[in-house]
Structures are given as C-alpha cells and as structure tokens.
Amino acid sequence: MYSRKAMYKRKYLATKSRIEKKKKLLVTVTKLVGRDKNGGTRVVKLCEILRHYPTEDGCSTHRTHQKFVIATSTKVDISKVKISKYLTDANFKKTELQKPRHQEAEIFDTEKEKIEISEQRKIDQKAVALQILPKIKTVSQL
C-alpha cells in the first residue's frame, strides 16, 4: 500500500520511569464574571484550610473571619511561644445552646442560657497573652 518506506513510520518510544508527583490542591480559582463591558474576575475558595485562620489583633485566641482581616507584610516571630496541648481546633468550636421546649406556662417566661467559659480556657488565654504581647509590643507598627 505504501510504496515508500519513509512515508509511514511509527515511532516507538521507550517507556520512561514515572515518578509520582503529589498533586497540589487548588485553594482558590479565579472565575470570569460578567461580559466584556462590566466583566471582571472573582476569586472562589475551594476548601477551607484547617489551622490557618488569622487571629484577632492583640492576643485574643478567638478566631476572626478572614474578610475582616487586613493583610500586611508585618511579621512577628512567635517561634519560641509554647502553646498548651488543650488549644486545638475543637476548643474554638461554638457550643450551641439548647432551644427551650415551650409548655403552656413557660411560653412567656423563657430565659436565655448564657455560654460559660471554662476555667481551662481562661488559663490558656492568660498563658498565651503573657508570651505573645511582649513580642507584639517590640514591633513598632503594631
């Protein structure tokens, strides 16, 4: 069928050793929004990264939503800070209050339950504050 040998020639490649690379998980994706005139881009978060939330200014161990944080290039060295073993992600979860079950007499006399902070959490807060506040005060911009 093929008169010339060089016209049809399959190339055989030797199999290369494959090294499995770890796939990087995409944290954000930019998507186009709108059209030509009023269009733009929007950054969409794909997943929440655990334990990488910013904390409030000062030394509070409360978590702050990331849309309220202003990103700066100021850095504070907290490498020598010792954190207790009780400060975990489970410690920052909010406890849900139980809704009162209404009965005939209790409809109008409902009192709201108050969230009580445990003594262990207060001790941890003081320990973290004593270590981090002097390091924050050394930075002139904070």
Task: Put the structure in a nutshell.
It comes from Tupaia chinensis. This protein has 142 residues and is largely without helices or strands.
Can you tell me about this structure?
The protein has a domain at 28-93 and 119-138. It is 14% helix and 8% strand. It has one helix spanning 119-138; strands at residues 28-33, 40-45. It has a two-stranded antiparallel ribbon. A hairpin with a 6-residue loop joins strand 1 and strand 2. Component of the large ribosomal subunit. The ribosome is a large ribonucleoprotein complex responsible for the synthesis of proteins in the cell. Component of the large ribosomal subunit. May bind IPO9 with low affinity.
Question: Descriptors for this entry?
Answer:
little secondary structure, 142 residues, 8% strand, single chain
Beta percentage is: 5-15%
Helix share, percent:
10-25%
Mean pLDDT comes to: 72
Secondary structure: number of strands: 2
Total helical segments: 1
- The secondary-structure class comes to little secondary structure
Strand line-up in the sheet with most strands: 1-2
Order of helices and strands: EEH
- For the termini, the CA-CA separation is 81 Å
The shape is: extended
C-alpha Rg, in Å?
A: 29 Å
The main sheet comes to:
2 strands, antiparallel
Low-pLDDT stretches: 54-59
Keywords: Ribonucleoprotein, Ribosomal protein
GO molecular function: RNA binding; structural constituent of ribosome
Organism: Tupaia chinensis (Chinese tree shrew)
Function: Component of the large ribosomal subunit. The ribosome is a large ribonucleoprotein complex responsible for the synthesis of proteins in the cell.
